[in-house]
Write a structure and sequence with these properties.
The structure holds two protein chains of two kinds. By secondary structure, chain A is of the alpha+beta class. Helices cover about 20% and strands about 20% of the residues of chain A. The relative contact order of chain A is 0.25. By secondary structure, chain B is mostly helical. Chain B is globular. Classes of the chains: A alpha+beta, B mainly alpha. At the A-B interface, strand 3, strand 4, strand 5, helix 2 and helix 3 of A face helix 3, helix 7, strand 1 and helix 8 of B.
Protein backbone atom coordinates (compact mmCIF):
# COMPACT_ATOMS: atom_id res chain seq x y z
CA UNK A 1 0.00 0.00 0.00
CA UNK A 2 2.31 2.69 -1.20
CA UNK A 3 0.16 4.70 -3.59
CA UNK A 4 -2.19 7.31 -2.35
CA UNK A 5 -5.84 6.56 -1.59
CA UNK A 6 -7.85 9.68 -0.96
CA UNK A 7 -11.03 9.20 1.03
CA UNK A 8 -13.47 10.67 3.48
CA UNK A 9 -13.84 9.62 7.10
CA UNK A 10 -17.27 10.48 8.45
CA UNK A 11 -17.77 11.05 12.15
CA UNK A 12 -21.26 9.91 13.14
CA UNK A 13 -20.74 11.45 16.61
CA UNK A 14 -20.97 14.99 15.34
CA UNK A 15 -23.05 14.85 12.16
CA UNK A 16 -26.18 16.84 12.96
CA UNK A 17 -27.99 16.10 9.71
CA UNK A 18 -27.98 19.69 8.47
CA UNK A 19 -27.48 18.71 4.79
CA UNK A 20 -24.88 21.46 4.27
CA UNK A 21 -22.62 18.84 2.65
CA UNK A 22 -25.48 17.86 0.33
CA UNK A 23 -26.20 21.39 -0.85
CA UNK A 24 -22.56 22.44 -1.12
CA UNK A 25 -21.82 19.26 -3.11
CA UNK A 26 -24.73 19.90 -5.43
CA UNK A 27 -23.76 23.54 -5.81
CA UNK A 28 -20.12 22.82 -6.60
CA UNK A 29 -20.79 19.95 -8.93
CA UNK A 30 -23.61 21.67 -10.76
CA UNK A 31 -21.24 24.43 -11.78
CA UNK A 32 -17.77 22.93 -11.64
CA UNK A 33 -15.89 20.88 -14.21
CA UNK A 34 -18.09 17.85 -13.52
CA UNK A 35 -21.39 19.67 -14.04
CA UNK A 36 -24.10 20.36 -14.83
CA UNK A 37 -25.96 18.04 -12.50
CA UNK A 38 -29.56 18.29 -13.52
CA UNK A 39 -32.79 18.29 -11.53
CA UNK A 40 -36.21 17.43 -12.90
CA UNK A 41 -39.21 19.41 -11.80
CA UNK A 42 -37.28 20.94 -8.88
CA UNK A 43 -40.07 23.24 -7.73
CA UNK A 44 -42.96 20.97 -8.65
CA UNK A 45 -44.92 18.35 -6.80
CA UNK A 46 -42.63 15.46 -7.69
CA UNK A 47 -39.05 16.74 -7.71
CA UNK A 48 -36.10 14.56 -8.66
CA UNK A 49 -32.45 15.03 -9.37
CA UNK A 50 -28.94 13.62 -9.25
CA UNK A 51 -26.89 14.10 -6.11
CA UNK A 52 -23.41 12.81 -5.29
CA UNK A 53 -24.04 12.97 -1.57
CA UNK A 54 -27.12 12.42 0.55
CA UNK A 55 -27.69 12.56 4.29
CA UNK A 56 -30.01 9.86 5.51
CA UNK A 57 -31.50 9.47 8.96
CA UNK A 58 -31.94 6.28 10.93
CA UNK A 59 -33.46 5.54 14.29
CA UNK A 60 -31.69 2.80 16.20
CA UNK A 61 -32.35 1.00 19.45
CA UNK A 62 -35.30 0.14 21.64
CA UNK A 63 -37.40 3.01 23.08
CA UNK A 64 -36.58 4.90 25.30
CA UNK A 65 -32.92 4.17 24.52
CA UNK A 66 -33.29 5.18 20.88
CA UNK A 67 -30.77 7.21 18.97
CA UNK A 68 -31.24 9.29 15.88
CA UNK A 69 -28.28 8.77 13.58
CA UNK A 70 -27.66 11.07 10.64
CA UNK A 71 -25.78 9.18 8.01
CA UNK A 72 -24.06 10.94 5.09
CA UNK A 73 -23.71 8.64 2.10
CA UNK A 74 -21.68 9.09 -1.05
CA UNK A 75 -19.33 7.07 -3.25
CA UNK A 76 -16.93 5.17 -0.97
CA UNK A 77 -14.11 5.08 -3.55
CA UNK A 78 -13.64 1.35 -3.00
CA UNK A 79 -10.14 -0.05 -3.24
CA UNK A 80 -11.69 -2.92 -5.19
CA UNK A 81 -14.58 -1.13 -6.91
CA UNK A 82 -17.08 -3.57 -8.47
CA UNK A 83 -18.44 -0.78 -10.70
CA UNK A 84 -15.20 -0.40 -12.67
CA UNK A 85 -14.57 -3.81 -14.32
CA UNK A 86 -18.18 -4.15 -15.51
CA UNK A 87 -18.12 -0.90 -17.51
CA UNK A 88 -18.09 -1.90 -21.20
CA UNK A 89 -16.48 1.32 -22.45
CA UNK A 90 -13.86 2.06 -19.81
CA UNK A 91 -15.71 5.26 -18.87
CA UNK A 92 -15.69 4.10 -15.25
CA UNK A 93 -12.19 3.97 -13.85
CA UNK A 94 -10.13 4.18 -10.69
CA UNK A 95 -7.23 6.60 -10.78
CA UNK A 96 -3.90 4.95 -10.07
CA UNK A 97 -2.37 8.09 -8.59
CA UNK A 98 -4.91 8.80 -5.84
CA UNK A 99 -7.53 6.03 -5.89
CA UNK A 100 -10.46 8.27 -6.83
CA UNK A 101 -13.17 6.39 -8.76
CA UNK A 102 -14.32 8.58 -11.64
CA UNK A 103 -16.52 8.51 -14.73
CA UNK A 104 -15.22 9.83 -18.04
CA UNK A 105 -18.57 11.31 -19.05
CA UNK A 106 -17.69 11.56 -22.74
CA UNK A 107 -17.23 7.79 -22.90
CA UNK A 108 -20.34 6.89 -20.88
CA UNK A 109 -23.09 5.25 -22.96
CA UNK A 110 -25.63 5.41 -20.13
CA UNK A 111 -26.16 1.65 -19.88
CA UNK A 112 -26.46 1.86 -16.06
CA UNK A 113 -24.60 -1.44 -15.57
CA UNK A 114 -22.10 0.20 -13.18
CA UNK A 115 -24.98 1.37 -10.98
CA UNK A 116 -26.28 -2.20 -10.86
CA UNK A 117 -22.78 -3.31 -9.87
CA UNK A 118 -22.52 -0.90 -6.91
CA UNK A 119 -24.05 -2.38 -3.74
CA UNK A 120 -24.21 1.05 -2.11
CA UNK A 121 -26.31 2.88 -4.70
CA UNK A 122 -23.58 5.50 -4.91
CA UNK A 123 -24.01 6.20 -8.61
CA UNK A 124 -26.86 8.23 -9.99
CA UNK A 125 -27.77 8.72 -13.62
CA UNK A 126 -28.14 12.35 -14.64
CA UNK A 127 -31.51 12.04 -16.38
CA UNK A 128 -30.94 15.14 -18.52
CA UNK A 129 -27.42 14.24 -19.66
CA UNK A 130 -28.11 10.48 -19.67
CA UNK A 131 -24.65 9.89 -18.26
CA UNK A 132 -23.75 8.12 -15.04
CA UNK A 133 -22.55 10.54 -12.38
CA UNK A 134 -20.99 10.10 -8.97
CA UNK A 135 -18.89 11.72 -6.27
CA UNK A 136 -15.57 12.90 -7.70
CA UNK A 137 -14.10 13.78 -4.30
CA UNK A 138 -14.10 17.23 -5.89
CA UNK A 139 -11.14 16.27 -8.05
CA UNK A 140 -11.52 19.69 -9.68
CA UNK A 141 -11.01 21.44 -6.29
CA UNK A 142 -8.44 19.41 -4.43
CA UNK A 143 -5.65 19.91 -6.99
CA UNK A 144 -6.59 23.45 -7.97
CA UNK A 145 -3.43 25.50 -7.40
CA UNK A 146 -5.45 28.70 -7.77
CA UNK A 147 -7.25 27.96 -4.51
CA UNK A 148 -5.60 28.69 -1.16
CA UNK A 149 -4.11 25.47 0.14
CA UNK A 150 -6.59 25.26 3.04
CA UNK A 151 -9.46 25.19 0.53
CA UNK A 152 -8.12 22.34 -1.58
CA UNK A 153 -10.65 20.01 -0.04
CA UNK A 154 -13.97 18.57 -1.24
CA UNK A 155 -16.87 21.04 -1.06
CA UNK A 156 -18.69 18.84 1.48
CA UNK A 157 -15.72 18.92 3.83
CA UNK A 158 -15.45 22.71 3.54
CA UNK A 159 -19.16 23.13 4.26
CA UNK A 160 -19.54 20.84 7.28
CA UNK A 161 -20.15 23.07 10.33
CA UNK A 162 -19.26 20.34 12.84
CA UNK A 163 -16.16 18.94 11.10
CA UNK A 164 -17.83 15.58 10.73
CA UNK A 165 -15.97 14.95 7.49
CA UNK A 166 -12.25 14.26 7.48
CA UNK A 167 -10.54 14.24 4.10
CA UNK A 168 -7.19 12.60 3.56
CA UNK A 169 -4.97 9.80 2.32
CA UNK A 170 -5.94 6.59 4.09
CA UNK A 171 -2.76 4.89 2.85
CA UNK A 172 -0.60 7.41 4.71
CA UNK A 173 -0.56 6.13 8.32
CA UNK A 174 0.21 9.62 9.59
CA UNK A 175 -2.74 11.37 7.92
CA UNK A 176 -5.55 12.72 10.04
CA UNK A 177 -7.93 10.34 8.27
CA UNK A 178 -5.80 7.25 9.00
CA UNK A 179 -5.30 8.24 12.63
CA UNK A 180 -9.06 8.73 13.06
CA UNK A 181 -9.78 5.30 11.55
CA UNK A 182 -7.11 3.64 13.67
CA UNK A 183 -7.83 5.29 17.00
CA UNK A 184 -11.60 5.61 16.82
CA UNK A 185 -12.69 2.30 15.35
CA UNK A 186 -13.37 3.47 11.80
CA UNK A 187 -15.33 0.90 9.83
CA UNK A 188 -16.38 0.25 6.24
CA UNK A 189 -19.92 -0.31 4.94
CA UNK A 190 -21.12 -3.74 3.80
CA UNK A 191 -17.83 -5.54 4.41
CA UNK A 192 -19.55 -8.74 3.23
CA UNK A 193 -18.98 -7.85 -0.43
CA UNK A 194 -15.22 -7.31 -0.07
CA UNK A 195 -15.21 -4.05 -1.99
CA UNK A 196 -12.82 -2.53 0.57
CA UNK A 197 -14.33 0.95 0.69
CA UNK A 198 -11.77 3.71 1.16
CA UNK A 199 -14.31 5.90 2.97
CA UNK A 200 -14.79 4.97 6.60
CA UNK A 201 -17.28 5.83 9.30
CA UNK A 202 -16.47 6.60 12.93
CA UNK A 203 -18.96 4.91 15.26
CA UNK A 204 -20.73 6.79 18.03
CA UNK A 205 -19.03 6.78 21.40
CA UNK A 206 -21.31 6.54 24.39
CA UNK B 1 -34.59 -4.41 -9.95
CA UNK B 2 -36.68 -2.51 -12.45
CA UNK B 3 -37.40 -4.62 -15.54
CA UNK B 4 -36.54 -2.56 -18.63
CA UNK B 5 -38.46 -3.52 -21.77
CA UNK B 6 -35.37 -2.99 -23.89
CA UNK B 7 -33.49 -5.66 -21.96
CA UNK B 8 -36.49 -8.02 -21.70
CA UNK B 9 -36.94 -7.88 -25.47
CA UNK B 10 -33.24 -8.13 -26.22
CA UNK B 11 -32.64 -11.22 -24.12
CA UNK B 12 -35.80 -13.04 -25.25
CA UNK B 13 -35.54 -12.17 -28.96
CA UNK B 14 -31.83 -12.93 -29.21
CA UNK B 15 -32.30 -16.08 -27.11
CA UNK B 16 -34.97 -17.35 -29.52
CA UNK B 17 -32.85 -16.42 -32.55
CA UNK B 18 -29.90 -18.32 -31.12
CA UNK B 19 -32.13 -21.29 -30.29
CA UNK B 20 -33.53 -21.35 -33.82
CA UNK B 21 -30.03 -21.34 -35.29
CA UNK B 22 -29.01 -24.19 -33.00
CA UNK B 23 -32.10 -26.19 -33.96
CA UNK B 24 -31.55 -25.65 -37.71
CA UNK B 25 -27.87 -26.53 -37.62
CA UNK B 26 -28.24 -29.52 -35.30
CA UNK B 27 -30.89 -31.13 -37.55
CA UNK B 28 -28.92 -30.22 -40.69
CA UNK B 29 -32.03 -28.56 -42.13
CA UNK B 30 -31.87 -27.97 -45.87
CA UNK B 31 -33.41 -25.87 -48.61
CA UNK B 32 -36.22 -23.48 -47.96
CA UNK B 33 -36.50 -24.36 -44.26
CA UNK B 34 -32.82 -23.57 -43.72
CA UNK B 35 -32.90 -20.34 -45.72
CA UNK B 36 -36.10 -18.96 -44.23
CA UNK B 37 -35.14 -20.21 -40.76
CA UNK B 38 -31.75 -18.50 -40.90
CA UNK B 39 -33.41 -15.31 -42.14
CA UNK B 40 -35.81 -15.40 -39.21
CA UNK B 41 -32.99 -16.16 -36.75
CA UNK B 42 -31.06 -13.19 -38.13
CA UNK B 43 -34.15 -10.98 -37.92
CA UNK B 44 -34.74 -11.99 -34.28
CA UNK B 45 -31.13 -11.18 -33.41
CA UNK B 46 -31.31 -7.88 -35.26
CA UNK B 47 -34.56 -6.98 -33.52
CA UNK B 48 -32.93 -7.80 -30.20
CA UNK B 49 -29.96 -5.64 -31.08
CA UNK B 50 -32.25 -2.73 -31.95
CA UNK B 51 -34.15 -3.21 -28.68
CA UNK B 52 -30.90 -3.17 -26.71
CA UNK B 53 -30.06 0.29 -28.09
CA UNK B 54 -33.15 1.64 -26.36
CA UNK B 55 -31.52 0.74 -23.05
CA UNK B 56 -28.72 3.24 -23.64
CA UNK B 57 -28.69 6.89 -22.67
CA UNK B 58 -26.21 7.55 -25.49
CA UNK B 59 -26.77 5.01 -28.28
CA UNK B 60 -24.51 7.02 -30.59
CA UNK B 61 -21.57 6.08 -28.35
CA UNK B 62 -22.44 2.36 -28.36
CA UNK B 63 -19.37 1.52 -30.47
CA UNK B 64 -17.24 2.28 -27.42
CA UNK B 65 -18.78 -0.69 -25.61
CA UNK B 66 -16.43 -3.14 -27.34
CA UNK B 67 -13.44 -1.69 -25.50
CA UNK B 68 -13.37 -3.46 -22.15
CA UNK B 69 -13.76 -7.10 -23.18
CA UNK B 70 -10.96 -8.11 -20.82
CA UNK B 71 -13.08 -7.37 -17.76
CA UNK B 72 -16.70 -6.75 -18.76
CA UNK B 73 -19.20 -9.44 -19.79
CA UNK B 74 -21.34 -6.69 -21.29
CA UNK B 75 -18.44 -5.69 -23.51
CA UNK B 76 -17.91 -9.32 -24.50
CA UNK B 77 -21.58 -9.61 -25.40
CA UNK B 78 -21.32 -6.48 -27.52
CA UNK B 79 -18.54 -8.16 -29.53
CA UNK B 80 -19.98 -11.68 -29.73
CA UNK B 81 -23.51 -10.66 -30.82
CA UNK B 82 -22.54 -8.98 -34.13
CA UNK B 83 -19.90 -11.66 -34.77
CA UNK B 84 -22.56 -14.34 -34.34
CA UNK B 85 -24.96 -12.43 -36.59
CA UNK B 86 -22.27 -12.23 -39.24
CA UNK B 87 -21.75 -15.99 -39.04
CA UNK B 88 -25.50 -16.65 -39.32
CA UNK B 89 -25.54 -14.50 -42.46
CA UNK B 90 -22.39 -16.16 -43.80
CA UNK B 91 -23.82 -19.63 -43.19
CA UNK B 92 -27.04 -18.68 -44.99
CA UNK B 93 -24.97 -17.32 -47.86
CA UNK B 94 -22.40 -20.09 -48.23
CA UNK B 95 -23.79 -23.13 -46.41
CA UNK B 96 -20.23 -24.13 -45.52
CA UNK B 97 -20.44 -26.53 -42.53
CA UNK B 98 -17.46 -25.11 -40.60
CA UNK B 99 -19.00 -21.63 -40.78
CA UNK B 100 -22.11 -23.09 -39.17
CA UNK B 101 -20.02 -24.94 -36.58
CA UNK B 102 -18.21 -21.71 -35.69
CA UNK B 103 -21.64 -20.10 -35.44
CA UNK B 104 -22.67 -22.77 -32.93
CA UNK B 105 -19.62 -21.95 -30.80
CA UNK B 106 -20.41 -18.24 -30.82
CA UNK B 107 -24.07 -19.01 -30.18
CA UNK B 108 -23.18 -20.76 -26.92
CA UNK B 109 -20.66 -18.06 -26.08
CA UNK B 110 -23.39 -15.44 -26.51
CA UNK B 111 -25.66 -17.31 -24.08
CA UNK B 112 -22.76 -17.39 -21.62
CA UNK B 113 -22.06 -13.66 -22.05
CA UNK B 114 -25.71 -12.70 -21.59
CA UNK B 115 -26.09 -14.92 -18.53
CA UNK B 116 -22.81 -13.79 -16.97
CA UNK B 117 -23.82 -10.13 -17.21
CA UNK B 118 -26.28 -10.99 -14.46
CA UNK B 119 -24.56 -13.92 -12.75
CA UNK B 120 -21.27 -12.05 -12.21
CA UNK B 121 -22.73 -9.50 -9.79
CA UNK B 122 -22.02 -11.00 -6.36
CA UNK B 123 -24.55 -9.07 -4.32
CA UNK B 124 -27.54 -9.68 -6.60
CA UNK B 125 -27.96 -13.02 -4.89
CA UNK B 126 -30.96 -14.08 -7.01
CA UNK B 127 -28.76 -13.89 -10.12
CA UNK B 128 -25.50 -15.13 -8.63
CA UNK B 129 -25.91 -18.80 -9.54
CA UNK B 130 -24.97 -21.12 -12.43
CA UNK B 131 -28.73 -21.56 -12.89
CA UNK B 132 -28.81 -18.08 -14.47
CA UNK B 133 -26.57 -19.30 -17.29
CA UNK B 134 -28.43 -22.60 -17.57
CA UNK B 135 -31.79 -20.82 -17.76
CA UNK B 136 -30.78 -18.21 -20.33
CA UNK B 137 -29.40 -21.02 -22.51
CA UNK B 138 -32.17 -23.58 -22.12
CA UNK B 139 -35.06 -21.10 -22.26
CA UNK B 140 -33.60 -19.52 -25.41
CA UNK B 141 -33.00 -22.90 -27.02
CA UNK B 142 -36.49 -24.14 -26.11
CA UNK B 143 -38.20 -21.14 -27.72
CA UNK B 144 -36.01 -21.46 -30.82
CA UNK B 145 -36.83 -25.16 -31.10
CA UNK B 146 -40.57 -24.45 -30.83
CA UNK B 147 -40.22 -21.89 -33.62
CA UNK B 148 -38.24 -24.42 -35.68
CA UNK B 149 -41.09 -26.92 -35.22
CA UNK B 150 -43.62 -24.37 -36.50
CA UNK B 151 -41.42 -23.52 -39.49
CA UNK B 152 -40.77 -27.17 -40.28
CA UNK B 153 -44.51 -27.93 -40.17
CA UNK B 154 -45.00 -25.27 -42.83
CA UNK B 155 -42.00 -25.99 -45.05
CA UNK B 156 -40.62 -29.46 -44.43
CA UNK B 157 -43.23 -31.56 -42.60
CA UNK B 158 -40.94 -34.59 -42.43
CA UNK B 159 -38.79 -32.74 -39.89
CA UNK B 160 -41.68 -31.37 -37.84
CA UNK B 161 -42.05 -34.42 -35.65
CA UNK B 162 -38.39 -34.38 -34.65
CA UNK B 163 -38.48 -30.67 -33.87
CA UNK B 164 -41.63 -31.10 -31.78
CA UNK B 165 -39.79 -33.75 -29.78
CA UNK B 166 -36.72 -31.50 -29.35
CA UNK B 167 -38.90 -28.53 -28.36
CA UNK B 168 -40.67 -30.66 -25.75
CA UNK B 169 -37.42 -32.03 -24.32
CA UNK B 170 -35.72 -28.61 -24.27
CA UNK B 171 -38.82 -26.96 -22.86
CA UNK B 172 -39.07 -29.52 -20.08
CA UNK B 173 -35.39 -29.12 -19.21
CA UNK B 174 -35.69 -25.32 -19.27
CA UNK B 175 -38.78 -25.44 -17.11
CA UNK B 176 -37.05 -27.64 -14.55
CA UNK B 177 -34.08 -25.27 -14.48
CA UNK B 178 -36.33 -22.26 -13.97
CA UNK B 179 -38.30 -24.03 -11.24
CA UNK B 180 -35.00 -24.84 -9.56
CA UNK B 181 -33.97 -21.17 -9.54
CA UNK B 182 -37.42 -20.09 -8.27
CA UNK B 183 -37.08 -22.65 -5.48
CA UNK B 184 -33.54 -21.50 -4.70
CA UNK B 185 -34.36 -17.80 -4.74
CA UNK B 186 -37.37 -18.25 -2.46
CA UNK B 187 -34.96 -19.57 0.17
CA UNK B 188 -32.27 -16.90 -0.10
CA UNK B 189 -31.37 -14.88 2.94
CA UNK B 190 -30.05 -11.41 2.10
CA UNK B 191 -26.40 -11.11 3.13
CA UNK B 192 -26.68 -7.36 3.59
CA UNK B 193 -28.81 -5.86 6.33
CA UNK B 194 -29.34 -2.34 7.61
CA UNK B 195 -26.79 -3.22 10.30
CA UNK B 196 -24.08 -4.04 7.74
CA UNK B 197 -25.17 -1.20 5.43
CA UNK B 198 -24.84 1.46 8.13
CA UNK B 199 -22.62 -0.17 10.73
CA UNK B 200 -24.95 1.07 13.45
CA UNK B 201 -24.77 -1.56 16.21
CA UNK B 202 -28.06 -0.92 18.04
CA UNK B 203 -31.13 -2.96 17.10
CA UNK B 204 -33.61 -2.49 15.67
CA UNK B 205 -32.65 0.05 12.99
CA UNK B 206 -35.35 1.91 11.08
CA UNK B 207 -34.82 4.42 8.33
CA UNK B 208 -36.54 7.71 9.04
CA UNK B 209 -35.42 9.58 5.94
CA UNK B 210 -33.59 8.68 2.75
CA UNK B 211 -32.37 12.24 2.47
CA UNK B 212 -34.73 13.54 -0.18
CA UNK B 213 -38.46 14.26 -0.30
CA UNK B 214 -38.80 13.33 -3.95
CA UNK B 215 -37.76 10.28 -5.94
CA UNK B 216 -34.34 9.72 -7.42
CA UNK B 217 -32.51 7.40 -9.78
CA UNK B 218 -32.03 5.12 -6.78
CA UNK B 219 -35.75 4.85 -6.05
CA UNK B 220 -36.59 4.13 -9.70
CA UNK B 221 -33.87 1.91 -11.13
CA UNK B 222 -33.77 -0.69 -8.37
CA UNK B 223 -37.48 -1.22 -7.67
CA UNK B 224 -40.02 -2.78 -10.03
CA UNK B 225 -42.61 -0.31 -8.69
CA UNK B 226 -45.58 -2.57 -9.38
CA UNK B 227 -48.15 -3.91 -6.92
CA UNK B 228 -47.78 -7.40 -5.54
CA UNK B 229 -50.62 -8.61 -7.79
CA UNK B 230 -48.59 -7.82 -10.90
CA UNK B 231 -45.59 -9.73 -9.59
CA UNK B 232 -47.81 -12.68 -8.77
CA UNK B 233 -49.44 -12.51 -12.21
CA UNK B 234 -46.02 -12.51 -13.89
CA UNK B 235 -45.06 -15.56 -11.87
CA UNK B 236 -48.22 -17.41 -12.87
CA UNK B 237 -47.74 -16.39 -16.50
CA UNK B 238 -44.22 -17.74 -16.45
CA UNK B 239 -45.27 -20.96 -14.73
CA UNK B 240 -48.06 -21.59 -17.25
CA UNK B 241 -46.68 -20.22 -20.52
CA UNK B 242 -42.98 -21.12 -20.46
CA UNK B 243 -43.74 -24.83 -20.81
CA UNK B 244 -47.12 -26.40 -19.83
CA UNK B 245 -49.36 -24.54 -22.31
CA UNK B 246 -46.92 -24.73 -25.26
CA UNK B 247 -46.34 -28.40 -24.41
CA UNK B 248 -50.07 -29.13 -24.76
CA UNK B 249 -50.07 -27.46 -28.18
CA UNK B 250 -46.90 -29.27 -29.23
CA UNK B 251 -48.34 -32.62 -28.11
CA UNK B 252 -51.92 -32.18 -29.23
CA UNK B 253 -51.52 -29.88 -32.22
CA UNK B 254 -51.05 -32.69 -34.73
CA UNK B 255 -47.95 -30.92 -36.07
CA UNK B 256 -50.20 -28.31 -37.66
CA UNK B 257 -48.82 -24.84 -38.37
CA UNK B 258 -51.43 -22.83 -36.40
CA UNK B 259 -51.01 -24.94 -33.25
CA UNK B 260 -47.20 -24.82 -33.38
CA UNK B 261 -47.20 -21.11 -34.24
CA UNK B 262 -49.47 -20.48 -31.27
CA UNK B 263 -47.16 -22.61 -29.12
CA UNK B 264 -44.23 -20.35 -30.02
CA UNK B 265 -46.19 -17.12 -29.53
CA UNK B 266 -47.44 -18.22 -26.11
CA UNK B 267 -44.04 -19.51 -25.07
CA UNK B 268 -42.46 -16.21 -26.11
CA UNK B 269 -45.03 -14.31 -24.06
CA UNK B 270 -44.18 -16.64 -21.18
CA UNK B 271 -40.49 -15.83 -21.61
CA UNK B 272 -41.25 -12.10 -21.45
CA UNK B 273 -43.07 -12.73 -18.17
CA UNK B 274 -40.17 -14.92 -17.05
CA UNK B 275 -37.61 -12.19 -17.80
CA UNK B 276 -39.79 -9.54 -16.13
CA UNK B 277 -39.96 -11.69 -13.01
CA UNK B 278 -36.21 -12.37 -13.20
CA UNK B 279 -35.60 -8.64 -12.74
CA UNK B 280 -38.48 -7.93 -10.36
CA UNK B 281 -37.47 -10.63 -7.89
CA UNK B 282 -33.81 -9.52 -7.72
CA UNK B 283 -33.32 -7.45 -4.58
CA UNK B 284 -30.48 -4.97 -4.79
CA UNK B 285 -28.76 -4.20 -1.46
CA UNK B 286 -28.82 -0.46 -2.23
CA UNK B 287 -32.56 -0.62 -1.54
CA UNK B 288 -31.66 -0.83 2.16
CA UNK B 289 -30.75 2.85 1.92
CA UNK B 290 -34.03 3.82 0.25
CA UNK B 291 -36.88 2.67 2.47
CA UNK B 292 -38.46 5.84 3.83
CA UNK B 293 -39.25 9.09 2.01
CA UNK B 294 -39.99 11.50 4.87
Amino acid sequence: MTTKQLALVIDLNVCVGCHACVTSCKSWNDGGAAGPLADQNPYGADPSGAFFNRVQTFEAGEFPATETVHFPKSCLHCEDPPCVPVCPTGASYKRAEDGIVLVDYDKCIGCKYCAWACPYGARELDEARQEMTKCTLCVDRIYDAKLPEAERKPACVMACPTSARIFGDVHDPQSEASIAIRERGGYALMPEWETRPANHYLPRRK
Amino acid sequence: MRPAWSVLLFTTLAGAGQGLFLALFAAQAQGELLQLGLAIAFALLAAGLVASFFHLGHPERAWRAAAMWRTSWLSREVIVLPAFMALVAAYAWTGVPWVGALGIALCFLLYVCTGMIYACLPFLQEWRTPLTLVNFTLLGFASGATLAAALAAALQPALARGYVFVALAAGAAAYLGRLASLWRNARLRPKSTLASATGIPQKPIVQISQGAMGGSFNTREFFHGRPREVVRAARWALLALVFPVPALLLLGGGEAVPALGAAFALQFAGLLAERWYFFAEAKHPQNLYYQAIA
